[in-house]
Design brief:
The protein is globular. The strands form three sheets. Strands 1, 2, 3, 4, 5, 6, 7, 8, 9, 10, 11, 12 and 13 form a 13-stranded mixed β-sheet that branches. It is an all-beta fold and 348 residues long. It is built from no helices and 20 strands. The protein folds into two domains: 248 residues, YmcC-like fold (Beta Barrel), CATH 2.40.360; 85 residues, Immunoglobulin-like.
Length: 348
């Protein structure tokens, strides 16, 4: 199923009086580059998604989150695959700087353009055959549209075509109440998804699912619930699904991103990893440079930063997490206008 903007949310609950008026989402509502979001995921949860209509309240119960993902919105020109997406106005990535999604937001539409990542040290760029309409703009209650993601891939000389299409109906508006202490004015869409995969022109995969997406004023998918892939049949009244809730958590310092293709320096995996409370990050510079080491927690909040002037050669940068809580952290090294990151685990 297409997850609009790579960040999704789920809503469920009872219909009661809402605190917000109906919203209309315009292109001007998008937050700028360097915005930071955190996505919370709970798989296979049993929760009602509530009903359609005006002035609803959908409440998401407290969850045990199976995964948490920080997401950074950056300028496409600062990313390694910008040349493949010349019309992109936004790109998203995570602190490891290994996966990038590209989007175009205009006065009339928000569209998905494709992705770029590193697979086995080889760049893999997927450009959609045509821009995939994520949201028509402006968009409000009772809107209808379709999202079609189509792209071709080659597997050892054998072509495969992926077609992921979703019919959307904006069937409700009201208030989303999340366990993240947020009440958000939202529009809800019912999503009817069809996934088809063709191998050498022969259909090999055909799936159909339902889902619901709640869109916040800034155009992001504030919550999403998707019918589980092992459901016996497509059912708009499903009660078990995968839940995603996303929270805006602030802004990122404006720095260029050159993640997987930085050429002027390299970093290794910190050791030991997991660590408690200290660890070392290997860095190798091709020439003398001003280096910034920034540490982010799993919500994307900056917890530590150091600046240093280092000569060419190999270096071991010490990291001390004695004042941090156990969890996932991201070490980001910036030098010569480029940046690389690695994921670390602190276990106390």
């Amino acid at each position: 199923m297409v997850r609009v903007f790579a960040v999704s949310f789920l809503m469920m609950g009872l219909a009661v009086s809402a605190a917000f008026a109906q919203i209309t989402i315009h292109s001007s509502d998008w937050r700028g580059v360097n915005s930071v979001y955190t996505e919370y995921e709970a798989d296979g949860v049993n929760c009602p998604h509530g009903g359609p209509g005006a002035n609803q309240t959908w409440t998401i119960p407290t969850q045990t989150w199976s995964n948490t993902y920080p997401e950074w919105w950056v300028a496409p020109s600062s990313t390694p695959y910008a040349g493949s997406f010349p019309t992109a106005t936004f790109a998203s990535t995570d602190p490891t700087l290994t996966y990038f999604s590209y989007f175009q937001v205009s006065a009339s539409a928000a569209s998905m353009l494709g992705t770029g990542t590193m697979e086995a040290d080889t760049p893999l760029v997927v450009v959609y055959s045509t821009p995939a309409l994520a949201l028509p703009l402006p968009v409000t209650y009772n809107a209808n549209w379709s999202t079609v993601v189509r792209y071709d891939m080659d597997f050892g000389g054998f072509p495969a075509t992926f077609v992921d299409s979703t019919r959307h109906t904006m069937d409700g508006w009201g208030t989303l109440v999340t366990p993240l202490a947020e009440n958000v004015a939202t529009l809800r869409s019912q999503d009817h998804n069809f996934l088809n995969v063709f191998f050498q022109g022969i259909p090999v995969v055909s799936e159909e699912h339902y889902g619901y997406t709640w869109y916040a004023q800034d155009g992001r998918a504030g919550a999403q619930m998707q019918q589980t892939s092992d459901a016996p049949s497509p059912d708009p009244n499903f009660t078990t699904g995968d839940l995603y809730v996303t929270q805006y958590t602030g802004t990122l310092a404006a720095e260029p991103v050159r993640g997987p293709v930085a050429e002027r320096f390299t970093i290794g995996q910190n050791y030991p990893n997991p660590f408690n409370p200290t660890t070392t990050l290997p860095v190798e510079l091709q020439h003398t440079a001003k280096v910034t080491l920034s540490i982010y927690n799993e919500t994307g909040r900056l917890v530590s930063t150091q600046e240093m002037e280092l000569p060419a050669g190999s270096h071991q940068l010490p990291i001390n997490g004695s004042s941090w809580a156990s969890g996932t952290y991201f070490a980001r090294v910036s030098a010569d206008g480029q940046a690389l990151s690695t994921k670390m685990m602190l276990m106390k």
